[in-house]
Amino acid sequence: MTSQSAPGQLSGTQLVHGDHGPGSEVAPSISVTTTFRAVPDGGAMDHIYSRYSQNVSSRVEQILSKINQGHAITYASGLAAAFSVLVHYKPKRIAISEGYMGCHSTISIYIKGRSADIPIIDLDDEFQEGDLCWLENPLNPIGESRQVFKLALFAYTRDLDPGQKHKILRGQGTKYFGGHSDLLCGIVIVRTEAECKEVSVIELTNQPRLIVVSSASGTEIAQWLSKAVIPEGQEYDGIPGGVIAKVWHSSLQETDARGFNPSVQMEGGFNACFSILLSKTEYAEKLPHSLEYFVPATSLGGVESLVQQRMQSDPKQNGHLVRLSIGVEEVGDLKDDLRRALIQISKGN
């Protein structure tokens, strides 16, 4: 029987039953083994070395393959998957604008190991054959969206087969597949089984249940905080004015001069991670440690809400910028927590 879920969306049916076969375990056993006993007389083996496959990763790959109508390969981390993209495609130039510092570091390491010069260009520059387009959407850390269709949805790389282009969408398996608090994960999706050693990284917009909740809560909180961007001496819903200078979130983006509106592109819901700009550096330093329900830690996408003065991880970021990742707590509790903390830091406490 075939699941009735739309292509590219994670259904409960596929999530629970997508990797099941006759006689299989209901839940895969967790094993730390790195190698497997050989079969006598050279017989076929399910697994040889955990670097290539083992029970848990193989079942994850089965589910992801069905969801994405392709063939999935899992990696130890997202950056490991990203590096494999670079190694395989050997781009002549890389188009990238802002985004996650880890991706920029990965690109820098790759370039250092190449004998030929690899120019870095902007995503708005004119593309040429052999360019690799590195699109991050929504953009880390601020959480605004970019117009994917403006880039023709697919980033063009060099021809691997005559007349055929390959698409790459770079995203976060670690964050929105399992949450960074207890899982690192890199995922590669390719079109055919024969391409399984080729690379094409997708963004996991196939949202599990927790992402639906955090997306809705994140949108509500971002829009609520944006109304508190008011002058000192005023107040919105208990939040003192003059503390929050700006809020970035995809849901707050208006239609731009090119006609792009994120609501058209993000049909499944907006991002749960976004940033606020506070009026003073000391506010940004104190806020993460003044909150009760937000964990002061880096990363995003877990069931718990996270908060960080972003320059603590990325020194190039504005010292006033604080990134929030909304989890599955009650949205009213998170609002109360933010309101209390913003009042507290505004008083110098």
Q: Which parts are unreliable, with pLDDT below 50 for 5 consecutive residues or more?
A: 152-172, 197-207
Bulk shape: globular
Q: From the alpha-carbon coordinates, what is the Rg to the nearest angstrom?
A: 22 Å
| Percent in helix | 25-40%
Tally of helical runs: 9
Percent in strands: 5-15%
Major sheet details: 5 strands, mixed
State the secondary-structure class: alpha/beta
**What order do the SSEs take from the amino end to the carboxyl end, as H and E?**
HHEHEHEEHEHEEEHEHEEEH
At CATH level 2, the architecture of the largest domain is: 3-Layer(aba) Sandwich
Strand order of the largest sheet: 8-9-12-11-10
Mean pLDDT comes to 78
Distance N to C terminus: 60 Å
* CATH topology annotation of the largest domain: Aspartate Aminotransferase, domain 2
Q: Look at the structure and give the CATH class of the largest domain.
A: Alpha Beta
How many individual domains? 2
The strand count comes to 12
Q: In the CATH hierarchy, what is the superfamily of the largest domain?
A: Type I PLP-dependent aspartate aminotransferase-like (Major domain)
